[in-house]
Design goal:
24% of the residues lie in helices and 12% in strands. It is of the alpha+beta class. The protein has one domain. The strands form six sheets. The protein has a two-stranded antiparallel ribbon. It has a two-stranded antiparallel ribbon with strand order 2-6. Helix 1 packs across helix 7, helix 5 crosses helix 7 and helix 8 packs across helix 12. The longest helix is centred in the first third of the chain and has 15 residues. The termini are close together. InterPro entries: Cyt_c-like_dom, Cyt_c-like_dom_sf, Cytochrome_c_Peroxidase/MauG, DHOR. Keywords: Heme, Iron, Metal-binding. Pfam families: DHOR. GO terms for molecular function: cytochrome-c peroxidase activity; electron transfer activity; heme binding; metal ion binding.
Length: 449
Amino acid sequence: MQGGAGTVNKIVNADIYSHPAANLDFEGRQEFMVGNGLFRKDWVSSPSSTQASDGLGPLFNARSCQGCHVKDGRGTVPGFDPLEQNDAVALLVRLSLPASAEEARQRIDQGEVASLPDPVYGHQLQPFAVAGLPAEGQIKIDYEEIPVRLSGGETSTLMNPSYRIENLGYGPLHPQTRLSPRLAPPMLGLGLLEAIHQDDILANAARDHGDGVSGRANWIRDPQTGQQVLGRFNWKAGQPTVAHQSANAFSGDMGLSTPMFPRHSGDCTPSQKLCHDMPHGAQAHLGEHEVPARLMDFVTTYSENLALPQRREVSDARVLAGKKLFYESNCIACHVPKYVTRRDAERPEHRFQLIWPYTDLLLHDMGSGLASDHAEGDASGREWRTPPLWGIGLTKTVNPNATWLHDGRARSLLEAILWHGGEAQAARDRVVAMTPAERADLIRFLESL
């Protein structure tokens, strides 16, 4: 019951990530179903006869939330075979400049911006555009094979990506612009993660975990209140709540205005003048935003209540052996197994639940191999938030083309482990030193989650 009372025991198929939490009441399930429709629907450009669904863009990465979060799971990166590479819909590319000037550094430190955007292309590359407007460009990926020798005579091959942008629609990028690809993560259990008490997360940062592990919080500015709040979501813990994360995706990924991010033009910059002249989809009789507050509430309810599937083979001897190895290798220094959610959580179904997400929701230095040279708020280019592991064993059941890590470079769970460095180097080395049978047991445990 890794998701508490909301855990579901359903047939394991491609829809296993898409069920409502089992403890949702009737009204909650109704809102969930409406949110599901909004999460899946394709938005269209303005003007359009479908006035409740227009406003896409002018620049965008996808037409729907589901376009990136495939069946509420991980997104898909372009193929590892150069001949099979397709459009990168779910792999976003963050753009930023180094904060060298004192004024710029102060803006980041004070939470006004998470990073400094490219002066022409903004915070994020948009590979698609509405009719009559050039798209910003397309990401291309080259992979270098890196063999890693393992104990017991085995060898694993890692794929090291390098990125470039082609077909730039608005001239060259700034010479110092840095690229940081981000793969759409799974949507499971987000409301339960939000319901973990802040003090429990901060206690993880204060605890001595051994192996030089020292996670830290990412404090960010709430765009509505201006207060410093704890980041929990996204690859750099750059968003404090599910509502913030959802609104940010509507704005940055689809160019749709919301009460939290009211710009109709999304990530269009002042240099992209034609972009600002495009018609928007706000309708006076529906509200001043393309995605009004009530629709945002539906999407947030949906995103907060996607249920965790019940674990499988929990009594299997090999699964239990793998769990023992997971603990003994000190993987739990970052992937903290369990919490009890707060009694005063906003939604009753999230209150006082014993959950097993296997994350500390903190930032960790993961070494040079995973570094992106893109800082975000307090998070450096080498730091990443510990991703939850619950549900990870069904990743490819939901999306057979799914891969792991922040940019999808890992084709297997073992490859994802072998990319760990920095604070996770010692735990990673213990996995390398295991016998082949022990490594198989470890992966079997992860696949049971």
